[in-house]
Specification:
By secondary structure, this protein is of the alpha/beta class. Helix content is about 45%, strand content about 25%. The protein has 3 domains: about 1-120, 2-Layer Sandwich (Beta-Lactamase), CATH 3.30.450; about 130-290, Alpha-Beta Plaits; about 305-475 and about 540-565, EAL domain (TIM Barrel). The strands form 4 sheets. It has an 8-stranded mixed barrel with strand order 13-14-16-17-18-19-20-21, surrounded by 5 helices. The protein has a 5-stranded antiparallel β-sheet with strand order 2-1-5-4-3, with helices on both faces. A hairpin with a 2-residue loop joins strand 7 and strand 8. The N and C termini lie far apart (about 135 Å). The relative contact order is 0.06.
């Protein structure tokens, strides 16, 4: 009676079956687990309840009679509930055919559906991105590895596309991380919509995505077609809770085929990553096929990045200063701070060789903070030494710096620490930075203006300005790009365009500053156009502090001598 009570109240279904799985006995728990009353099961074959896909494997286990008396075995499979749903079950099989009290095979079966669901959930989380639901890096690398193994057998090319969103950080900073996640989900949907069922899309982390094409096509042309289609999908804006946002991406493509095999999934991914960086350097919003020579370029980039971090730690950066001149009078009115890198092994490294990489890696933030602090300290020193000249100090701010709300506090700190009059500091922001995210830029510039500093649009004319845009910027100075100055004496369209830009500054009550003046005829023409200020090699190249101070001292002496001569003539 005790044994009958235990069986009746067991959470497992206890069955006794014939070798052909005909059920002779089923415990009362069959109703709770399988939905069948025991008498409904008795006389039926248990094989009828097993899911078709699992039937062959499960039956070979349940009907195996080779083992001896009392042998126990355990397996998992799916059975059909009376309501038509499938359950995952685990069955313990005991061979008691020779036991006179049983004379059958005893099956102890329990429902493990919740456990299997939890295991699948854990497995999905382990191999899929939680935000987009795409494969994650671990699963993607595993599939690439298997694709390369199959390639050695069938010879089909394997292609990997490595995609990185351009300027995604700006979206996070301006709209918030929730909007950024929303964009990633929407982009993942578009990405999958452009791929075949056999292809694999993955999010590798941050704003990096990857695609595996197991049939990469001859010389990557199919992969290039896919990359082109992906870029096309990004031309339409994304709607993030009523805000239209455009996303652009750079894509690198690496192909492994019998003519150009790769050793591992890591190598194929690395090659695609390198090609992606080349695409960014080529102008962004484009794709680039990997070429072996790119490895050398990537290695140089890594070396440069490491050297740049060392330069920050070991104070290898220096500031040079180029005078800004009042064109009609020749008076020095200020200087612009320009960074130089003195590498102990390679010598002077030009800014164009490291500033773009510093922007890309984020190292521009600590570098820019140092420049700001150093320039303000030196400006205060110049103001004390040459008080009669009333010099201003111009400092460039990068896109990364403008995107960070901390920039306002950093400028305030530099002014406080140096004691510099805020009105003597000019912060220069390139036109393209402001146009990229106008609302963010305008808001940040207004915050900076509250500190009392002057603001300038640098390299004006090289971006996408319109009169409407410029009117919205709370700026004081318009720096006319050197490309306009080069053609100022040529007459015709070039000269007329330069005159129009200078006139635009006057209409908007902005001070125009001509950049890159190199010849006397350019100076003469700019004065005729009523351009107030200018800088360039005609007056002085960027100078270290000692040479600048010598120049300013000489300039002051000459002006005093000229004033004295004028007084005598009067």
């Amino acid at each position: 009676m005790r044994f009958a009570s235990l069986v009746k109240n067991s959470s497992d279904v206890v069955m006794v079956t014939e070798p052909d799985t005909t059920i002779r006995y089923a415990s009362p728990s069959a109703h709770r687990v399988l939905g069948f009353e025991p008498e409904e099961l008795e006389g039926r074959r248990f094989a009828e309840l097993i899911a078709p896909d699992d039937r062959t494997r499960a039956l070979s286990f349940l009907t195996a009679m080779a083992e001896g008396e009392g042998h126990v075995g355990l397996t998992e499979y799916r059975v059909r509930h009376r309501d038509g749903t499938d359950l995952f079950v685990e069955t313990l099989r005991t061979n008691l055919l020779k036991d006179p009290n049983v004379k059958g095979i005893v099956l102890n079966t329990r429902d493990i559906s919740e456990r299997k669901q939890f295991e699948e959930q854990l497995s999905h989380q382990a191999f899929h991105d939680q935000i987009t639901g795409l494969a994650n890096r671990a699963l993607f690398q595993d599939r690439v590895s298997h694709a390369l193994v199959r390639q050695t057998r069938d010879g089909n090319p394997v292609a990997v596309l490595f995609m990185d969103l351009d300027d995604f950080k700006t979206i996070n900073d301006s709209l918030g991380h929730a909007a950024g996640d929303q964009l990633l989900v929407a982009l993942a949907g578009r990405l999958v919509g452009r791929l075949r069922t056999a292809d694999t899309a993955a999010r590798l982390g941050g704003d990096e995505f990857a695609v595996l094409l197991e049939d990469g096509g001859d010389e990557g042309m199919t992969a290039a077609d896919v990359a082109g289609r992906i870029l096309e999908t990004l031309e339409e804006p994304f709607d993030l809770d009523g805000t239209e946002v455009y996303a652009r991406a750079s894509i690198g493509i690496s192909v492994a085929d019998p003519q150009s095999p790769v050793g591992s999934a890591d190598e194929l991914l690395r090659n695609a990553d390198v090609a992606m960086y080349m695409a960014k350097e080529g102008g962004k919003a484009r794709y680039q096929l990997f070429e072996p020579a790119m490895h050398d370029t990537a290695l140089r980039r890594l070396e440069l990045r490491a050297a740049m971090q060392r330069a920050i730690d070991h104070d290898e950066f220096r500031l040079f200063y180029q005078p800004v001149i009042e064109l009609p009078t020749g008076k020095i009115t200020g200087v612009e701070a320009l960074i130089r890198w003195f590498d102990p092994e390679k010598g002077i490294i030009p800014p164009l060789d490291f500033i773009p990489l510093a922007e890309e890696t984020g190292l521009i933030v600590p570098i820019g903070r140092w420049v700001l602090m150093e320039a303000c300290k030196y400006a205060a020193r110049l103001a004390e030494t040459f008080a009669a000249l009333d010099l201003h100090m111009a400092v460039n701010l990068s896109a990364r710096q403008i995107a960070r709300p901390e920039i306002v506090d950093e400028v305030r700190e530099a002014l406080t620490a140096s004691g510099l009059d805020p009105g003597k500091l000019v912060l220069e922001i390139t036109e393209s930075v402001m146009i990229h995210d106008m609302d963010l830029a305008i808001g940040r510039l207004k915050e900076l203006k509250t500190l009392g500093v002057q603001l300038a649009i640098d390299d004006f004319g090289t971006g996408y300005s319109s009169l409407n845009y410029v009117r919205r910027f709370p700026v004081d100075i318009l720096k006319v790009d050197k490309s306009f100055i080069d053609g100022v004496t040529e007459g015709g369209e070039s000269s007329a365009l330069t005159a129009a830009v200078i006139e635009l500054a006057s209409i908007l009550n902005l001070k125009p500053v001509a950049e890159g003046i190199e010849r006397a005829d350019q100076l003469e023409q700019l004065i005729a156009m009523k351009c107030d200020l200018g800088q360039g090699f005609l007056f002085a190249k960027p100078l270290p502090t000692d040479e600048l101070e010598d120049l300013v001292t000489e300039h002051v002496a000459m002006r005093l001598e000229a004033d004295a001569l004028a007084d005598r003539l009067d």
